[in-house]
Amino acid sequence: MSETFLGMPATAPPGVGHLRGTEPFPVAARQALGDAQLRRNLGHATATIRNKSAAVIGEVPDWPRLREAGRAIKTDTMARLPELLEKLETAVTGAGGTVHWATDAVAANRIVTDLVRAAGADRVMKVKSMATQEIGLNEALTDAGIEPVETDLAELIVQLGEDRPSHILVPAIHRNRAEIREIFLRAMPGVDPGLTDEPAALAAAARRHLRETFLSTRVAVSGANFAVADTGTLAVVESEGNGRMCLTLPETLITVMGIEKVVPTWRDLEVFLQLLPRASTGERMNPYTSMWTGVTPGDGPQSFHLVLLDNGRSAVLADPVGRQALHCIRCSACLNVCPVYERTGGHAYGSVYPGPIGAVLSPQLTGVADNASLPYASSLCGACYDACPVMIDIPSILVHLRAQAPHSRTEATAMAAAAYTMDHPARYAAAQRAAKLSRLAGRRGRGLPPPLSGWSDSRDLPDPPARTFRQWWAGR
After folding, report:
1. How do beta strands 147-150 and 226-228 pair?
2. What domain range includes position 435?
3. Tens digits of per-residue pLDDT, 161-198?
4. What pLDDT, in 10s, does the model give residues 297-319?
5. 31 within domain boundaries
6. Is 61 in the same domain as 181?
7. Residue where a domain stops, chosen among 313, 328, 349
8. Residue 155 maps to which CATH number?
9. Which of 286, 313, 340 is a domain's end point?
10. Which residues of 72-131 form beta strands (DSSP E)?
11. For tag attachment on the chain, is the N or C end more exposed, with fewer CB atoms within 10 Å?
């Protein structure tokens, strides 16, 4: 009889995984903006995905209703999350699987490492997984003497290049074909020295490299796009077939899944399998949709373990405004329309979750103080909200988190003075008359001295009007 312990609102531990950057976003973004090749790669890739996605979404007359349905299901799921997770545990266990509860990244890494050791393996093959990137599983396995092999093509490029993912859907979106060829020639064992940068040739090289791994590795680690509470069914969607190989060939399968990925019923899954491919890859359906329920004797892995990961998610759930971020289905549509992401790329965010969704999810998982610059990594244009297939109001969450971020003493003093002035009509009128003195600050406020220049460095100080509203009104 297993006991279930649901997480308390604690944030993800520092020093483990990939949720915190080493630099604030403005510093990292400034460096990224200086890389012209990076901007060209990102601009081309995001425009291509946007156009494909828009075309297939335009084919669906009830797309707005599907989005509403997705949002409603996610809202209901978050309201009943403890109940649904326990229901999922019962169903998975009843189907022959084993469920493990990981309060944070440290616990999840320990659970997976112990399971691999218990299976007598020193190598695992991995399906692309944001959750395992989040907790730094590859590093934990390597430290334990276990070799992790990424089988997704883009993740393999990142791994061989000793790089970091920069996109949720396409981790190597910041690399072009010539750069990928150089990585393969430098780091892929046995690669043909005459390898070209044609996509088919690069894919064939990766296929040859991975074939031995698929056939000889006894343990696989995956994430999960969805889990059905009613049946205990897990689902992984992908485009290359590597996931199908990892999910069916090994003796032991370990799935690490964020607790927010559960859906109540099989029928709810139907909605997301329509929303996800069109919003993410611009496809009508995913080429490979793999589903499994526990263990089936003689068919597929004979040992299945599901690791349910909290790692700050309970803290996100505790915020009535911020919990919308847990609705995310990792489609990356918000990244592909974001003007900030398109120019800086994912590495500037310092987290495995980049772009608009990362700007609201990462600070909540770590605590806003640990990622205080990310809620400001946005122009608040609202394109992310328009693109999101489950209608997450990212701009509103950004504003909400900005209110929680630490503010400098100068800014706090200025805001307090503004509140004091605006609270009394006479003081406000006097301030309006004095506003004409702002012309002394120079054009757009560029002449302000420190610390006031911290405001005008990134904002334009508007020119004062020739007449205030009060003056105009008095004249009429």
Report:
1. unpaired
2. 409-475
3. 999 998 998 888 899 999 999 999 999 988 999 999 99
4. 999 999 999 999 999 999 999 99
5. yes
6. yes
7. 313
8. 3.40.50.10420
9. 313
10. 98-102, 123-126
11. N
Main-chain phi, psi angles of 195, to 5 degrees? -55, 130
- Integer Cα distance of 238 and 224 in angstroms: 11
DSSP string, 314-377: HHHHT-TTGGGGGG-----HHHHH-HHHHHH-SGGG-SSS-HHHHHHHHHHHH-GGGGTTGGGS
**265: which DSSP letter?**
S
Per-residue pLDDT, 217: 96
Query: Do 417 and 281 sit in the same domain of this protein?
Result: no
456: confidence class by pLDDT, cuts 50, 70, 90: low
Q: What type of residue sits at position 411?
A: E
Locate all alpha helices (DSSP H) within 367-438, ordered by sequence: 383-387, 394-404, 409-422, 425-434
The H or E element that residue 130 is part of is: helix 130-135
What span, in angstroms and rounded, lies between the C-alpha atoms of 209 and 213? 8
User: What length is written for the chain?
Assistant: 476
Identify whether 255 is part of a domain: yes
d(CA 299, CA 253): 13
Q: Is 288 exposed, middle or buried (0-12, 13-18, 19+ CB in 10 A)?
A: middle
- 300 and 417 share one domain: no
Which residues in 269-323 belong to E strands, given as ranges? 288-293, 303-309
| Cα(326)–Cα(320) distance, integer angstroms | 11
Q: Is 161 exposed, middle or buried (0-12, 13-18, 19+ CB in 10 A)?
A: middle
pTM to 2 decimals? 0.89
